[in-house]
Amino acid sequence: MAKEMPFQVLVRDLPTRRTFHVPTELVGEWLKGLPMRDALGAPEGDPEAGHGVADLELYADGAHAFAAGSFRGELTVACSRCIIPVKLVIDEKVRVTFMPRQEIPDDDAPADAAGEEEGPEVAEEDLDVFPFDGERIDLEPLFREQFVLAIPYAPLCAETCKGLCPQCGIDRNTGSCTCEPPIDPRLAALKGLKIPS
Ligand SMILES: [Zn+2]
Ligand SMILES: [Zn+2]
């Protein structure tokens, strides 16, 4: 990676309006290790990994800084059933706060200690807060999050995707096979039983 930090903005330069481009190499790097990305078997530096553009107003108010605007982009992951590439589109409104690390609730605290009332709502708000040192805003974690959060739990090329045959691996969307579903060995044993009528 280049030593210059293209996603960092000095607080003394605020307020400002900036456009940031996230190149495909970076997207590939960020998504490396995610199962739905690795399943593609894409080469290092895959030009189809994705890209993004953030258009942000950045401003500061005392100890806090803010970013508001939009993030658009796309990324490619594998269909969770047939592993063909699926293009996901990102078109998100961005509104985040940067605050000193010590003001941010401790994410590492064990779930039990955090208290029972902490529902998903609280967790969602946490996503919109990023730490900063009071001097420079680092937008990279924000951009990275846009890509990671864009990936659904089980991406699909189509709702109707038939997936791969678990026995022979054929893509059932484009071919067929004569594999029979395996029979549970316990049921197989029962098959031999004669049920008295
Ligand atoms: Zn599929
Ligand atoms: Zn098969």
SSE map:
Layout: E1 8-10, E2 16-22, H1 24-31, H2 35-38, E3 50-61, E4 64-78, E5 85-100, H3 120-126, E6 129-132, E7 136-138, H4 140-149, H5 185-191
Parallel strand pairs: 5-6
Antiparallel strand pairs: 1-7, 2-3, 3-4, 4-5
Residues 79, 81-82, 84, 156-157, 161 line the site of one zinc ion.
Largest sheet entry:
5 strands, mixed
Bound molecules: zinc ion
User: Count of helices?
Assistant: 5
The global form is elongated
* Strand and helix order: EEHHEEEHEEHH
Poorly predicted regions are 118-125
Mean pLDDT over the residues? 86
| Order of strands across the main sheet | 2-3-4-5-6
Count of individual beta strands: 7
Helical content, roughly?
Answer: 10-25%
First CA to last CA: what distance?
A: 75 Å
Structural class: alpha+beta
Estimate the strand proportion: 25-35%
What's the gyration radius in Å?
Answer: 24 Å
Characterization of this structure:
- This protein has 197 residues and is of the alpha+beta class.
- The chain is 18% helix and 30% strand.
- It has five helices and seven strands.
- The strands form two sheets. The chain has a five-stranded mixed beta sheet.
- Helix 3 links the parallel strand 5 and strand 6.
- The longest helix is centred in the C-terminal third of the chain and has 10 residues.
- It is elongated and about 85 Å long.
- It starts with 7 loop residues before the first strand and ends in a 6-residue tail after the last helix.
- About 4% of the residues have low confidence.
- It binds zinc ion (2 copies).
- The site of one zinc ion has 7 residues, from loops.
